[in-house]
Amino acid sequence: MQRWVKGIVVWAAVLVAAPVLASAAQQARAGQDRGTAANAVGAQADQAMMAGTDALKQGDLKTAVASFKTATELRPQFAEAWLDLGLALEQEEDYTAAEAALGKACALKPGLRGANLFLGIAAYQTGHGREAEAALKREVKANPKDAKALMWLGVAEMGNDEPATAATALDQAYALAPKDADILYHRGRAHLLVSKQSYQEMYTADPEGYRVHEVLAQADVEADRNAEAIAEYKLAIERAPRQSGLHEALADLYWTTGKLDEADAAYQQELAIDPYSATSNYKLGSLRVIVGKPAEGIAYLKQAVKLDPDFGSAFYYLGRAQVDSGDDAEGLANLQRASTMPGDATVNTLAFYQMSRAYRRLHRMDEANAALARFRELRDAAAQKETDKETRRVEQHRSLPQAEPLPTDAEAAGQS
Questions:
Q1: What was the pLDDT predicted at 404?
Q2: Average pLDDT score over the chain
Q3: Which residues does 347 contact at the CB level (< 8 Å), separation at least 6?
Q4: Cys-Cys link to 120, which of 112, 135, 315, 329 (CB 3.0-4.6 A)?
Q5: Options 1.25.40, 3.30.70, 1.10.287, 3.90.1480; CATH of 310-416
Q6: Could you report the per-residue pLDDT of 353-400, keeping only the tens digit for each?
């Protein structure tokens, strides 16, 4: 049994123990659940509970365990004493004894808050996975908004080889505590296991299918093994030549590795399968612009913005293609639109650079200088802050395989 959760157990035990112990001590002082306030045995149990509470607060686990044991011996039907003993034993990492004490607390008082949570933790640590899951489900049922209980339920379910149900519990925990590092770790691990399980089942169902090669290609891309990824995508295409998305993914890799003619051909093949793909139209049109064939890219870029009117990058390359083809007025309109559309800050910045070129060619020098100044302002600001990685991931499917670099001052000064 792995022990990487020990630190979390200690933290959680201290967090929950304080209010539970305070409540138990208050009940003891008030003489609740006692036959009579004058009962000498009950008074001794009260003293033992308070001594255990004080020892636990001071970190004296040995004394705390001994005191709580005395309380359970004097008042064996007092559930809170068994709970406190279980918490102290859990902090000592004596999980077997803790499981027994916490089980006794739950048996005496099934609704005792926290008892099933820590019983589940102790059972998990001793390798009793099913018992842990059952206890944690009881805790979650009683306290559905307890993020830590949901987290531990997910951990137990992963230990029981139930990653899909674990992911559900951990998603619920995440919704309650989205900044909790432990929840984020376990949630990510659960989803990774679900993904791995799904891929294993896919391979078993169809070991020679195109999806297997597609997954292998994606893994190679993530590991920057572009040559291997290209080979896997080719195998996938051999098995499913009309499957949309495969030719575009292969074209992206050709572009990344500098094989621009092969990229152009692969994008055309993708569009033969799916002519309504906004991203393939955009990428092929942009590629034509970048290799110096702007007029050949305009039709594809017009189709891209028609299919996706919020596609700022496509408006940028359409405007650039039109400016490079001599249609400055139409190009300016599209560049102005690209400069204000959300999505890619680099595209917004480059739009002002291309606008300054178009204004200059139209002899509108004040506007050209203003656009160039705005370009430099945005470029310099971008250099001072890190790109939002999450936003970039969301936009990645619409981005070009190779980013266009921002022009330097020297390049901007030499624009025509």
A1: 61
A2: 85
A3: 312, 313, 316, 338, 341
A4: 135
A5: 1.25.40
A6: 989 988 988 889 999 899 899 888 888 877 666 444 434 433 445 566
Task: Reduce the secondary structure of the chain to three states and give it as a string.
Answer: CCCCCHHHHHHHHHHHHHHHHHHHHHHHHHCCCCCCCCCHHHHHHHHHHHHHHHHHHCCCHHHHHHHHHHHHHHCCCCHHHHHHHHHHHHHCCCHHHHHHHHHHHHHHCCCCCCHHHHHHHHHHHCCCHHHHHHHHHHHHHHCCCCHHHHHHHHHHHHHCCCHHHHHHHHHHHHHHCCCCHHHHHHHHHHHHHHHHHHHHHHHHHCCCCHHHHHHHHHHHHHCCCHHHHHHHHHHHHHHCCCCCCHHHHHHHHHHHCCCHHHHHHHHHHHHHHCCCCHHHHHHHHHHHHHCCCHHHHHHHHHHHHHHCCCCHHHHHHHHHHHHHCCCHHHHHHHHHHHHHCCCCHHHHHHHHHHHHHHHHHCCCHHHHHHHHHHHHHHHHHHHCCCCCHHHHHHHHHHCCCCCCCCCCHHHHHCCC
The single-letter code of the amino acid at 39 is N
**pLDDT computed for residue 2 by the predictor:** 41
The domain defined by 6-200 folds into: 1.25.40
Domain boundaries, the chain: 6-200, 310-416
Q: Do domains 6-200 and 310-416 have the same CATH topology?
A: yes
